[in-house]
């Protein structure tokens, strides 16, 4: 048996109960037993029984430092006491009234206080639905049907928003262009066919694994206004993770529509679409015939999520959790880059705010600022050829008690301490050394 197989055997030996549940899961769930594409993993991701703060534990008693953090929703960590208290209190009062309630109003008012551009707010069970509504409203508002998006930017999985690589989606009305190319953007917008331009805040994938140039973004509203297209900024990841006012408050832009999700629900499923009042006019009953939009949704603004959302937003409004989490991510990037350098490994940690990304491959000679991407050719940051290497790294990290997303994305909460990060760095160093020794990573 070669070294590569033996680590998989060790991994499985330490997760026998997870293996049994994985077999059961494979019989019911079509995607190799997983319920989300990011949870598909060879041999399987652990089956988690409980979580607390920044840790989670699996069925076999293995403990992990968590950098998945609910796909980025848990800036406040697992089971924050304020959120637990709010949910416990609400659960005894009812979880789904199917009626108006005060919590939904309080929650929306808090969102508006944090994001002044959120003059009107719609609430959804997830970010995907918020983006779907953005498409619908933009079409009615502009009288156009086409959607413009940037390559690799993720907005969900519905028809207009899914990756063009997916099958079964109808994207006749969608054009996808490279980000950071102002000339190309103007060329498309000037056709005056687009209802809406979508942009993922920070850049493509989870706050900017492929970062977008803020100067490029600052030019967008002038162009969209000039050619009559609405600009929807997708802050589902960054909204209230980056700052109380979202990424838009950091770079100083005001989109027509903003979608929110993840952090705003404090760990319960949530989404919101916010923006200028006139765009939401079609929701008013008795409006202009042919310009009416209906909004259904059993779970919209359900009291349990609203209670958790209020507790979360009260904490996020201070800006303190965001600052603390960003400092922790910066520490991981700095110290992680020292490890890569010492080991002679081509690659770099980079990123802004409270998410750190690992790139493996040759770094540009002038790379010195880890808040910026380490390569000029941004396509290299998501080179599909590196996926097996990141999978392998994730396997080694899970074995050493560190759980992250797709092997390369570290999502922080404000509860990660220097001690936790040192432990992570130790695991990372050990994992990389092992990969060099087994030949699955080249120096
Ligand atoms: C930028 C972005 N937009 C939208 C979504 C979809 O949000 P949800 O998973 O809540 O439907 C995601 C999910 O990861 C996302 O990262």
How would you describe this structure to a colleague?
By secondary structure, this protein is of the alpha/beta class. It has 2 domains: 3-77 and 320-438, Aspartate Aminotransferase, domain 1 (Alpha-Beta Complex); 81-316, Aspartate Aminotransferase, domain 2 (3-Layer(aba) Sandwich). Helices cover 36% and strands 15% of the residues. The protein has helices at 3-13, 16-28, 81-91, 102-114, 127-142, 182-189, 214-226, 247-251, 303-316, 320-342, 387-399, 418-438; strands spanning 48-52, 55-58, 63-66, 120-124, 146-150, 174-177, 194-200, 203-204, 210-211, 230-234, 257-261, 271-275, 347-350, 355-360, 402-403, 409-411. A 7-stranded mixed β-sheet has the order 4-12-11-10-7-5-6, with helices on both faces. A hairpin with a 4-residue loop joins β2 and β3. The two termini are 24 Å apart. The structure holds pyridoxal-5'-phosphate. Pyridoxal-5'-phosphate (PLP) is lined by residues 71, 126-128, 131, 154-156, 200, 206, 234, 236-237, 261, 271. Pyridoxal-5'-phosphate (PLP) binds at residues 71, 126-128, 131, 154-156, 200, 206, 234, 236-237, 261, 271.
